[in-house]
# Entry
Amino acid sequence: MKAALVVHRVLEDIDSNLATIVRMIGEAANSGADLVLLAEAALTGLINDDDPAHDLPLAQPIPGPVTDKLAQLARDLRIWLATGLLERAEGKLYDTAVLLSPDGEVSLKYRRIQPQWHGRSADPAVYCQGTGLRKVETPWGSFAFLICGDLFDDAIVARAKALRPDLVLFPFARCFDDGTHDQERWDTEEEPAYVDRVRSLGATTLMTNYLADRDSMGGAFGGAMAVAGDGIVMDSLPLGQAGILLIDLPSACSG
# Structure
């Protein structure tokens, strides 16, 4: 199976972001991708500020117009398509990821369990976490999601490991406080920490971050990485640039 990890630049305009996402998914499919993975909160960036008046309009119902459009794209291109989205459901907000099948169905929906996607003072009646963690069978093996801080929670990782997925899809949103795209810092400090957590998980993991301006959109530094369950980095995309990382997954994930 060929996977495409898509790193796109997130702007303030949601329609522009969706157009960019659609274009890059098409490029990935034209390059032979069977599976496309986008970042956490790919449509808007993780720019919530714990004010429901600001944050609820950022979110999408699932299913809804955006997932319907992406599902049609998955159907037209005959690909598996995974993306993170802020989700709005009955006045509540979730940090969510969905996997769309080549038939255009929502095959897997996962709501982030670890709560640090919002502040500690955020209204718990609005800002909510998921509780369920499961995998789905595909022609390429079984897939599961984790999102960002989930990977650094021992209890969540233990639950994911117990599922024994063939592949973990990991959309995330990460920036440095100074807003830089410091590749050396990533290589020496951050990447080893992520790799160590994947080793604890014991499953091949695909990671995708988005790219954003610091002043208006939080400054996520991009980057993508595929890590085998033994902690070997299979391939990666440098920080600070939009692009597509294409990777042929090993036989254990190749159906």
Remarks:
- The radius of gyration is 17 Å.
- The helical segments are 14-30, 52-55, 65-77, 154-163, 183-201, 214-217.
